[in-house]
């Protein structure tokens, strides 16, 4: 008879440890879903880059506005996952799906408000951020078309949320690949044309995004109608509860928005080349943030289910695991991007001015990957536990103490992109200290179907 594991290792196996394959089973399909919106803009960046630095700078201004407006509403995804996962862990799947129904109603309502208000302010916002008319004008045109997709993006966020809560990350993978693939095929045709048609230019990329977002949203709505919720009617009591959690997550997202909008505004003051270089690296940062967040999404679902099922010990074991996974992935990605500093930037633009400016933010981007891996992993743990109030407060502190002072000092003293990305580094270091401190206390691990 072979020896027991304890005899081989000298210690008993941890009963609360989740096998790595269980985390991978949820994390691997979640990756393309998380990366969907940044991937839309990465495709845009590569395609629009062939139009020149001014078009790329216009995309930088409009793209950051659209991403920040939609991503700051990510409580429709993260908040729904936290609530649905606890219900799923307690064996109440129909109620978990019901959270998705209410989140989808909320997504449609908020999305229509975003579309209406966005059309009213698109001109003033892009002129304020774009500085130069040749940047602001095309940016406004792109943003007006892209805003049509806002309700669709929010419906997709709500769909991701409840599906992660019931530990289904494979269906969202199929839905997002379908929408993203359609957008990627349409983008170069609509921007540059085909045959004798000259294309739509910059606006073509926004149109392609809306086409892909429409398909993805339709697939999520279809899945929701088949999932077996007790009712598809709006339930005001549940909507109020979701909004209460969303308040903290929205405030946290506003801190991100203030930081990245400030960075975009300052970058344009250093010229079109600097703004375009910042756009390329920022979109890669957004993309990699979500790549690293794939493990955290698995933790969100598993931690929520563990706490809903009454096991704080299992939730804490998961937290330690995903923190290690995030660190290892961050170190690996940092090394890869450091090695590709002379290879990858020309994929996005052939402009020599942009390529010369991109070197400084690129090294910041590569060096910050290990820190980001740990921060995003623990973010996922705390979001799965519904610890949104702590994340709100510490993110605001990180913005005020780490990011914004260096961003605006870089404008005053002419530090350029080095100053802007130093601000991002300060932001991440403050967040790292805050989430590590919270993880050590264990006060986030509150059991029950709902966090008090």
From TrEMBL:
Keyword Transcription in annotation: no
Keywords in alphabetical order: Membrane, Transmembrane, Transmembrane helix
Membrane topology: Multi-pass membrane protein
Chief place where the protein resides: membrane
Subcellular location(s) of the protein: Membrane
Parts of the chain that traverse the membrane: 47-67, 103-122, 142-162, 174-194, 206-229, 249-267, 287-313, 325-348, 354-378, 390-409, 415-434
One Pfam family this sequence matches: MatE
Superkingdom of source: Bacteria
Record-linked InterPro entries: DinF-like, MATE_fam
Family under the similarity heading: Belongs to the multi antimicrobial extrusion (MATE) (TC 2.A.66.1) family.
Protein name: MATE family efflux transporter
């Amino acid at each position: 008879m072979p020896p027991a594991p304890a005899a081989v290792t000298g210690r008993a196996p941890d009963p609360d440890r989740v096998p790595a394959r269980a985390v991978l089973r949820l994390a691997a399909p979640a990756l393309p879903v998380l990366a969907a919106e940044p991937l839309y803009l990465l495709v845009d960046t590569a395609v629009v880059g062939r139009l020149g630095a001014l078009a790329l700078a216009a995309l930088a201004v409009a793209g950051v506005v659209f991403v920040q407006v939609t991503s700051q509403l990510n409580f429709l995804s993260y908040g729904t996952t936290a609530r649905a996962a606890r219900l799923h862990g307690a064996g109440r799947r129909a109620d978990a799906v019901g959270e998705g129904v209410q989140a989808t109603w909320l997504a449609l309502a908020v999305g229509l408000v975003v579309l209406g208000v966005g059309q009213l302010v698109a001109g003033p916002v892009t002129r304020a951020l774009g500085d130069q008319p040749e940047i602001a004008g095309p940016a406004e045109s792109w943003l007006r078309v892209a805003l049509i997709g806002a309700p669709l993006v929010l419906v997709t966020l709500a769909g991701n949320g409840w599906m992660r809560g019931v530990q289904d990350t494979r269906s969202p993978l199929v839905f997002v690949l379908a929408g993203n693939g359609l957008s990627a095929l349409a983008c170069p045709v609509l921007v540059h044309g085909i045959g004798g048609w000259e294309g739509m230019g910059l606006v073509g990329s926004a149109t392609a995004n809306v086409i892909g977002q429409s398909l993805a949203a339709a697939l999520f709505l279809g899945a929701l109608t088949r999932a077996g919720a007790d009712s598809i009617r709006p339930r005001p009591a549940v909507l109020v509860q979701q909004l209460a959690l969303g308040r903290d997550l929205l405030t946290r997202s506003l801190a991100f928005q203030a930081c990245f909008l400030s960075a975009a505004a300052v970058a344009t003051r250093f010229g079109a080349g600097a703004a375009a270089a910042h756009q390329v690296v920022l979109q890669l940062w957004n993309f990699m943030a979500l790549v690293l967040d794939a493990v955290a999404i698995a933790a969100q679902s598993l931690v929520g289910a563990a706490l809903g099922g009454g096991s704080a010990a299992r939730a804490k074991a998961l937290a330690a695991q995903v923190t290690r996974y995030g660190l290892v992935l961050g170190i690996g990605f940092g090394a890869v991007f450091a090695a590709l500093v002379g290879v990858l930037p020309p994929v996005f633009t052939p402009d020599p001015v942009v390529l010369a400016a991109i070197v400084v933010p690129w090294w910041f981007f590569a060096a910050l990957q290990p820190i980001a891996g740990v921060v995003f992993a623990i973010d996922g743990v705390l979001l799965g536990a519904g610890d949104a109030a702590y994340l709100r407060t510490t993110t605001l502190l990180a913005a005020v103490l780490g990011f914004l002072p260096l961003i605006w000092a870089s404008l005053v003293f002419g530090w350029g992109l080095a100053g802007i990305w130093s601000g991002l580094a300060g932001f991440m270091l403050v967040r790292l200290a805050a989430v590590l401190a919270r993880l050590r206390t264990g006060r986030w691990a509150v059991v029950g179907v709902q966090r008090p």
